[in-house]
Each structure stands twice: as C-alpha cells, then as structure tokens.
Amino acid sequence: MVVTGCSQCIKYMLFFFNFIFWLAGGVILGVALWLRHDSQTSNLLMLQFEGNQAPGTFYVSVYVLIAIGALMMFVGFLGCYGAIQESQCLLGTFFTCLVILFACEVAAGLWGFINKDTISTELINFYDTAYIKAVDPVGTESKQAATKILEVFHETLECCGKGDNNELFKAAQTSLCPKMTNPIDLLITQSCHTKLRNLFTEKLHVIGLAALVIAVIMVFEMIFTMVLCCAIRNTPAY
C-alpha cells in the first residue's frame, strides 16, 4: 500500500525529522566524546590525592550521554526506515522507543537541574583539600603531593587560590600561582572556585540547549508517527 496526498507529505516530513533526529544523536555522541576527552576536564578529573580520586560524577553523566547519543542514532534510523517502508510495525516500535527516550530526557533534565552545582562543588572540595595541605608551612610528603595537584589546577584553568587571600596563602603564593605570559610577568590570582563553576556551567548550557532542540523534534516526530500510522491503516490495499 502507498499513502497519497497529505499523508504522503507527512511521510516525507517524518523521514526528514527522523534524519534530523539521527544527526542530533550523532551530535550528542560527538559532544559527549568531546567532553570525555576535553583537556581541561580530563586533566582535573584524573587527579588523585592521598588515595582519593577526583569526583567522577561528571564522567558518569558523560557516559550516559554517550549511550543516549548511540541510542538516538539507532532509533532515528528505525524511524527513517519505517517511514519509507510505511510499516506500522516499525513505526509502532519507533514510537514506543521515542516515548521512552522522551521520558528519559525529561528525567535526566530534572536530575541535571536539581544537581547542576554538584559536579563543580565536588571538584571545589577536592581542590580545597589539596589547597589546605599545600599552604601548610610545615614541609611534608603530603604537602609536595598537594602542591603538584594545585599546579595542575592552576595551569589548566589559569587561576590561583580560593579568592580568600589568607596569610598562609600569601606566603606560598609565589610558588603556587602560575605567571602571565607577558613582559611584566605578573602572577595569576583569579579564584579557582570561580573558574571551576564557570567551567562546568558553560558545558551544561551546551548540553541543555541540545536537549531542548531534540525534545522539540521528538514531539513533532511522535505527532507525525501517529498520523502516518492512522493513514497507513486506513489506506486500502491494492
């Protein structure tokens, strides 16, 4: 059977939206892989101090994004093929997968909104633990390890300190803070707390914008899929 008229127009529109959805899945997968291998985040999240690994909440979220991107590409292909073949079975399967994905996206969005500051807060606490040891005037093996941890933070984010400028920090500032690359050779003193919050806030904005666009596409796809299924069911077989 072949749908005609408006139903055929909806068929090709559904194919188009599914192709966009498939591309969006590829974009999500690409962004997730970029976040996983981004030099700033990977340098910080691979650190260890006194047997404690830097918080891994961010990487857990990235792995979830990788899985979602791969699943979106599969579902998008299923929708494209189902629309071209005018198969109620494939379109029904596609619609079910789409509803599940939409529910998961809403749940993930709510979780992300509630815990939007968790990743930066965990990493700030990790930084503060090393910071306390690094500014300790008593030279110990633990202090040397903490100083190396801070060096990675400072060089990666181009920051130094917590912004409180206490006396212990001022005494160790020259050795801890990286220098600006200019003839004056001034020390960088921007707060690492601010830098860490901005680092993950910027990345969350990218993810949030992508999720919003995909959610709108999914709503249109669900509507077109239901209309096309009804049209196929009502089309007489020749």
Summarize the structure in words.
The chain has helices at 6-37, 39-45, 57-85, 88-114, 118-134, 141-157, 167-176, 192-234, and strands at residues 48-49, 52-53. By secondary structure, the chain is mainly α. The chain has 2 domains: 6-116 and 210-234; 120-193, Cd81 Antigen, Extracellular Domain, Chain: A. It has a two-stranded antiparallel ribbon with strand order 1-2. Helix 3 (57-85) packs antiparallel against helix 4 (88-114) and helix 5 runs antiparallel to helix 8.
Compact overview of the structure:
The protein is built from 8 helices and 2 strands, in the order ααββαααααα.
Mean pLDDT: 78
One letter per element, helices H and strands E, the order comes to HHEEHHHHHH
Main beta sheet strand tally, sense and closure? 2 strands, antiparallel
End-to-end gap: 7 Å
Number of helical segments with 4 or more residues: 8
Total number of beta strands? 2
Name the structural class: mainly alpha
Q: What Rg do the Cα atoms give? A: 25 Å
Strand content: under 5%
Shape estimate: rod-shaped
**Total separate domains:** 2
Range of helix content: over 70%
Strand order of the largest sheet: 1-2
Low-confidence stretches: none
Which helices and strands, and how do they pair?
Elements: H1 6-37, H2 39-45, E1 48-49, E2 52-53, H3 57-85, H4 88-114, H5 118-134, H6 141-157, H7 167-176, H8 192-234
Antiparallel strand pairs: 1-2
Helix pairs in contact: 1-3, 1-8, 2-6, 3-4, 4-8, 5-6, 5-8
Task: List the main descriptive attributes of the protein structure presented here.
single chain, 238 residues, mainly alpha, Cd81 Antigen, Extracellular Domain, Chain: A, 2 domains, two-stranded antiparallel ribbon, 2% strand, rod-shaped
